[in-house]
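Archive record:
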Amino acid sequence: MMPREMASAVNLMAHPMASTAAMSALGIGLANHAVGMWMGAFTGALEASQRMFQPFFDDLEAQTEAAANFSKARKATETLIAEAQTFARDVTDIAATTAEKTLDSTGADTVAEAAATGLMPEDFRQPKVIDKPAKPSDLKAISGIGPKLEKVLNGLGIWTYGQIAAWTSEEIAWVEDYLSLAGRIGRDDWTAQAAALAAK
């Protein structure tokens, strides 16, 4: 039942001369045994504290990882937002540039057309309108007028060849400006075609 160190010390006590050595050995054995018990208790306490605080350490590690992931996600989101804003600005700039070019070209056409006819926008005059006749002319017979344009002209009160044949330069300018035809009536010579069709 006794430790080996203590048992050997007890055996030495049988010799009178070795009693001092036996007592010393016995003390050393008890000290070693006490140290072993203390070390065991300390190790057990350390393991118990580690098990007790392990959930806290795991939670702290999880929070640290989550914070790192959140930081990465935030940076990625900020990058995407910046790219989207840059793209939107580029699209806006392109649209503005295109609109300016369109306005410039339209304005140039209007100025060129006005210079060619010697008329200014304030001189334009809407053609005379009439009610729909019993037999309206087929305006599609005029080169340059399709079904859609015929409906638009009818909506303006223009139904017959005679009306188009009688247009003045001011009225032609008004129709071209209103329908954005940019000189098409003059190029296709609608008035002459309408006069010829009216004569038939």
Observations:
- Confidence is low (pLDDT under 50) at residues 106-116.
